[in-house]
Amino acid sequence: MTRRRRWAMAAITLLVVLGGCSALSPSADAPATDTITPVPVPSATDSAGTTPTAAAPTVRSDLDSFPGVSARTGIDVERLLSAHVAYLSTRSYTVEWARWTAGGTQSVADRFERRVEVADDGTYLRRDRGVGSRNVTTTYVGPEGAYRRVVTDEKTVVTPVSVRDDDPARERFAHLVAFEVSAFLRSGYDELDVVERGGRRYARVFATRAPPELAQIYDAYALRNFTATLWIAPEGYVQAVHYEFDLVGTERSFSVEWRYAYTEVGETTVDRPPWAPTDGTTRTPADATIDGPPPELTLTPGPTQSPDPSRGSRPAVSNATDPG
Predict the structure, then answer these.
(1) Count of CB atoms within 10 A of residue 160's CB?
(2) Beta partners for 149?
(3) What does the record list as coiled-coil region(s) (predicted)?
(4) How many C-beta atoms surround the C-beta of residue 50 within 10 A?
(5) pTM for the complete prediction?
(6) Pairing with 13, which of 52, 93, 214, 218 sits 20 to 30 Å away (CA)?
(7) To the nearest 5 percent, what fractions of the chain are helix, strand and coil?
């Protein structure tokens, strides 16, 4: 099995685990289908804290300046993925991704966020949390070793952990969007243009055709209202991906939304956190307390534009379930 195919399979596994496929199975005791509305999404902001506005698309000939993109022939998916991994594999960066679900109950009516700061191939800091939950899991990997801290309402525990070493960290986390890039673009797209933000141009891809892989993952539901937008940076890496869809079942319906963003490319640094021991010990502080809620994860998905209902955005529906 080739490395790229292996990463694609790993990405599909991530969707299955984080998407909560088992939790999405219809319940015989469930009431009638809920009415749902689009999941609220934080506004993208620039470094000054203002919401950027994308400029009008430039001439299509500018597309030729992006690796793997051509105004005449469209997108070469293999070349784009190669450029994406090659560029990020030699630089530090921060990758953030989040999943929102709404319209259901219990474990699938939630939000999940992850942030990974990748300094080099052997040093990174990963933070996972579910919004609405005080449980936070942080993993540090560095020259001193690898440690994981789990913070709950009851206690804080720090333990040594083993880490995979078959692929360098920068390459491994660069592959996080491999499934989305490959599946979405191979299924076809509706628009391909260039937008500008802060003096930088991005190739923007907009698609409304759901890849068959998603339907297979959520086979207990009808998948509808799929939309996806990808932003490609001038250097050739996929700076951000945003996609959403509805899952319609006989007894329950859900809205699902995902966002990925690569930021601070070439500028990310990671220091050993003070809670990570250097002697390989396990620490369970007797007086452990939660050190406040983690900072809000703010995704910056490139030069995003306001939703346009004519291009597949979902209409608002009343009586929605608050995702929390």
Answers:
(1) 15
(2) 138, 158
(3) none
(4) 9
(5) 0.71
(6) 93
(7) 20, 30, 50
Within the chain, residue ranges assigned H as helices are 3-19, 77-88, 169-174, 178-186, 212-217
CB 255 within 8 A of CB 38: yes
- What mean pLDDT comes out for the span 66-93? 95
pLDDT in tens, 53-79: 444 554 566 899 999 999 889 999 999
Sign of CA dihedral 51, 177, 161, 118: negative
State the pLDDT at residue 292: 39
Segments in 93-211 forming alpha helices (H): 169-174, 178-186
Q: Give the three-state DSSP class for 8.
A: helix
Burial letters 53-64, b for 16+ CB under 10 A, else e: ebeebeeeebbe
Output phi, psi for 147, to 5 deg: -140, 150
For the chain, give every domain's residue range.
Answer: 3-21+57-303
Show the 3-state SS of 229-258.
Answer: EEEECCCCCEEEEEEEEEEECCCCEEEEEE
Tokens (6 digits) for 186: 């191979």
Helix (H, G, I), strand (E, B) or coil at 301: coil
Q: What are the φ/ψ torsions at residue 310 (nearest 5 degrees)? A: -75, -10
Bin 17: left if φ > 0, else alpha if -120 < ψ < 50, else beta. alpha
pLDDT in tens, 33-43: 333 333 333 33
